[in-house]
Input
Amino acid sequence: MKNITLGRYVPADSFFHRLDPRTKLVAMIAMLVAIFLPTGFYGYAIIGVVMVFCILAAHLTISTVVQSMKPMLVMLLFLLVINCLVVKTGYVWLNLWGLLIYSDAVIQTLYIVVRLLLMIMITTLLTATTKPMDMTLGLEDLLSPMQFFHLPTHDIAMMIALALRFIPTLIEESQRILKAQASRGVDLENGTFREKIMAVLSLIVPLFVSSFQRADDLADAMEARGYVVGAPRVRYKKLRLRAADYMTLALVAALLGGLIYLAVVLA
Amino acid sequence: MPISFEKVSYEYAPHTPFSYQALRGVDLQLAEGRITAIIGATGSGKTTLVQHLNALLIPSEGTVRVMEHEIAAGRRFKDAKKLRQKVGLVFQFPEYQLFEETLIKDVAFGPINFGMDADKAAAVAAQALSTVGIDKADFEKSPLELSGGQKRRVAIAGILAMQPKVLVLDEPTAGLDPQGAAAVMELFRRLNRSQGITVIIVSHDMEYVLDYCDQVVVMSHGQAVIQTDVKGFFESEQYMDQANIDPPAIVRFRQLCAAKGLKLPADALTIDALADQIAKRIGR
Output
């Protein structure tokens, strides 16, 4: 579990680390929309080149992105098999003992692979360069128009912030309990079904007990410091858009516009 | 057979931006049948070190030998379960790992995992609970009903019930009141003296190290920099400086006297011995 690379903040000092989280959120959404434009492999090539450049500029490595893809490998293989069995258009690519594999099956799978890879690149660029707390601040600001519809955006942002804050704590805690129970002879891999159920229980029960304890303590600590649900709050950290943010937004808008134009031309 | 570490290194999350080298070529011998204290600053690798003793961690480099078992880097260790029965490891704040409905069931959990039948496990669990001083009337209580100190002792009983030959404890006194802390340290000494169990304690409380331990290992930046006996350690100003510790009260007293010009012998490490020395100086 220590090896989770997807969605983790990687501390560094780069252009992207310094951008306003709101800029990055909006840019991410725009880029995700761009992926779903019907621009074919030309569009993907453009987005791909831009993203590789951005990832390198953010002091990340392409290998971290590829590593994040690993958990999806099984799913993609499964998809390839299904596509090969179902899709019967295009020309015959391969003849496996009477099973005809059509070109469209492979191309469609490849499409999805490329789309996933690009999506991971885009989201990684956001999560790896934005501290979770900044992200929630940005999210709160972007959601603030929803207050008009009586959506409690402050509270939602606080909940997200707290949840994000405790993910590493819970991972650490579960690893500690896992090790402690392993020391008492718990073996998650071998053993009968009953033993496995006991093994899982021995992990989950202490995790729940300590999570509730933590939640209680945290609620007390927040109240002791004067936190009132729904009360207006000022901010310690104010977000401000800088020249770099406007420039980034302009570039993203230009890219998105260009890709829309490409999609129209291709259609 | 003693426990030995040979050039053991350990790296967390290797090949990622989060990699961290916790141990750097540890060479270490831990004496059998003794009580050894492992001390050192936060982040010096103490916890990582002790997790190698029952193969929770496999070295990135080097070899750990525990009794007849050999845990070597890059090799699959097959006897983890056998080893874990012989080396009982009590984690920091072990009370958080209690999960059964009753104390006796929780303590019997370990023995049953190691293949003991339910009746016999209940018998050893009852014995372990008595050893740590839990009243028979409380055996059927839920762990949630106990105080912090009691929970700690129940968690320790959960390891003792496995009847290990080596008992490893990570900060067993952390968060306990002085009486509770002294009681668990007293328990470890009793287990060591009466049953010959090898005890290894990670601690930062020098009073307990001085009063209850035989050997000292000092960890610093992922290496075992000092290995000596307790007397030798607290007699040597140089060792204590190097380990960067808060000396126990008796040693501080000796240092203060020395600063005022009264040189007391360094081997007077109990209150009685110190009093005798002072009496001698003032001629009584």
Q: What stands out?
A: Chain B has a mean pLDDT of 91. Chain B touches chain A at residues 12-13, 16-18, 51, 54, 56, 80-81, 84-85, 88-91, 94, 96-99, 109-110, 113-114, 144, 158-159, 162 (CB under 8 Å).
